[in-house]
Amino acid sequence: MVEFDRFGPEKILRVYNPKVGMRGFLVVDNASLGPGKGGIRMTPTVSVGEVARLARVMTWKTALAELPFGGAKAGIVANPKTMTQQQRKEIVQAFAKALKLVSPKIYIAAPDINMGEQEMRWYVEANGSLKSATGKPANMCDKNGRNCGLPHELGSTGLGIYNAAVIAAKHAGMELENASIAVEGFGNVGYFAAKYLSEKGAKIVAVSDSRGLIYNKAGIEFEKLVDVKKKTGTVAEYKPGTVFPSSKIISLPVDVLVTAAIPDLIKEADIPEIKAKIIVQGSNIPMEKHAEDRAHEKKILVVPDIVANAGGVISSYAEFRGENAKTMMKIVEAKIKKNTELVLSNAEAQGTTPRDAALEIARSRVLKKCEWCGTN
Predict the structure, then answer these.
(1) CATH of 156-311+339-360, one of 3.40.50.720, 3.40.50.300, 3.40.50.970, 3.30.830.10
(2) Does the pLDDT at position 47 exceed 90?
(3) Which of 11, 19, 73, 203 is catalytic?
């Protein structure tokens, strides 16, 4: 079910190619600040309602990061685990061709679940414009060898999460060095969040993936964990440590919980079980609004997704401008620190939640440019 309000969504496109079995959709939520920006996720269960919620997140995220983009998101209904690479390529390219009418004019693609730099290459090749997607491979450049891709595999989202955690720790009166950290998910986002946090002296004590959770109060060696994950396919095989179901990640005795995988991880009923003093939302929509409100009442500092995980879309902005990887990382760090500080300071001054403070800033920026939003 898609909910419409004064901000959007502006457009919902459903596309289908029976020859290759491609079925997908695009939601452009609000393009007042620029073409809609948002990734494509490929899962067998992705729905228009899910994509619409994520597109709204992108509207606020790009506005908060002060980027010349609006909010959008796309989905392809398919299970990549059951496809050959050729079938996957055909589906991605069929989707790209179906969206040529609007991409890149009002939609610019990016990676998301089960979509990486290779898929962005296929998308651009089928679309015909380098500007139609970001998160492209680093060797995909214009004819002059410039304006090359900046794949999300460089770790921009994880870097942003780390910097959001730095600012949050300051506001919580916590020393991030030696603070205990739990990271939910060990894909691209969780991997780099754990990497940067551990490199800066934080103590990773728990990491989960779809097959389980490893917990070691004394700390987990990051490089050893990476090796175990590569060899066994799961972090749960790391030793020494205690193995729990993945869902246990939210109730462990840690200082900071980083969400970096599934949506709707934390429900309102879970809040009494949470022991973390800070939650950094590295994943999109990991908590219900009521859950965030309850967390605020419990004095848990929650850095919302529209602030904390904006490193990916900021990286996209740098790529769109033709920046190199080093400059991109500097832009990510500066913007995440600035925006996290602004949101948390406003929340403290207003006595409200960080999400409410963030939404107030984002909405005001969109309304200044929106010619059709109205006043309701």
Answers:
(1) 3.40.50.720
(2) yes
(3) 73
